[in-house]
Write a structure and sequence with these properties.
Largest sheet: 8 strands, parallel, barrel
Shape: globular
CATH superfamily: Aldolase class I
Order of helices and strands: EHEHEEEHEHEHEHH
Number of helices: 7
Structural class: alpha/beta
Strand order of the largest sheet: 1-2-3-4-5-6-7-8
CATH topology: TIM Barrel
């Protein structure tokens, strides 16, 4: 049985655009409510990247957060995020995500637990990449997806977070808005609050969520972002959040 999938505000790292040391930026975002971090930095040597992963896991462990490693090598953990190109089938990990951009790529998913879809809006990280899906395109992919989706690409403001939630996304994946922020704690707090405020009314209404779930019988995960995966795998336990959880 798998544990929770990423939800809320999910941080993607990029030390090349970060305004400071990556560990300090991640710690700041975690202080602002982030509980899921995807480690990219694929250009680093494995040993250096593994050391970075260990350091970020230590930061997340204090709040029950989870580090996901981009690529098939989990670097000592058990959570990976794979590119659309492969490998197929995905490796047998406790948590597997996949980058997708359209319905054909979503249709190839098998044992993945979640996927990102992008770009939702134009993004500074990949200028010219697209065309942007927009909230309407995101909604269509949510309705067609067999797994919960994270909205990725150009998500920088509370209004954009709200639009993604209203389109049915389980969360938002954010890179530039946090990596380039002079105050990642404040930015993370603002975006996390927007997610919680957007999702809470939907969860508090009788029967809410039944018409907008990532797949039949599966509703978007409530923000919170910890993980029930074992500490031995580098994952912590769930931490209670302010948002109301749905009955499973």
């Amino acid at each position: 049985m798998t544990g929770p999938v990423p939800s809320g505000v999910v941080l993607l790292t990029d030390r090349l655009v970060a305004r400071g040391p990556l560990d300090l930026l991640v710690a700041g975002a975690v202080a602002g409510g982030v509980r899921w971090v995807v480690l990219r930095e694929k250009d680093l040597a494995r040993a250096e990247r593994a050391a970075l992963a260990a350091g970020l896991r230590a930061i997340l462990a204090d709040v029950g957060g989870t580090l996901i490693v981009a690529g098939p090598d989990p670097l000592g953990g058990d959570a990976v995020h794979l590119p659309a190109a492969g490998p197929y089938p995905p490796p047998p990990r406790q948590l597997v995500g996949r980058s997708c951009h359209n319905q054909p790529e979503l249709s190839r998913l098998t044992s993945e637990h979640y996927a990102t879809v992008s770009p939702i809006w134009p993004t500074k990280s990949k200028p010219g990449y697209g065309p942007p899906l927009g909230p309407d395109g995101l909604r269509k992919l949510v309705e067609a997806s067999p797994v919960p989706l994270l909205a990725l690409g150009g998500v920088e403001t509370p209004d954009q977070v709200t639009a993604c939630v209203q389109a049915g996304a389980a969360g938002v994946a954010v890179l530039g808005a946090l990596m380039r922020s002079p105050d990642p704690t404040e930015t993370a707090t603002t975006l996390t609050r927007a997610f919680q405020e957007a999702v809470t009314p939907r969860l508090s209404k009788p029967g809410a969520g039944s018409s907008r779930s990532p797949r039949r019988g599966l509703r978007p995960t409530v923000p919170t972002q910890g993980s029930s995966l074992t500490a031995r795998s580098g994952h912590g336990r769930p931490q209670p959040q302010t948002a109301t959880k749905e009955e499973r």
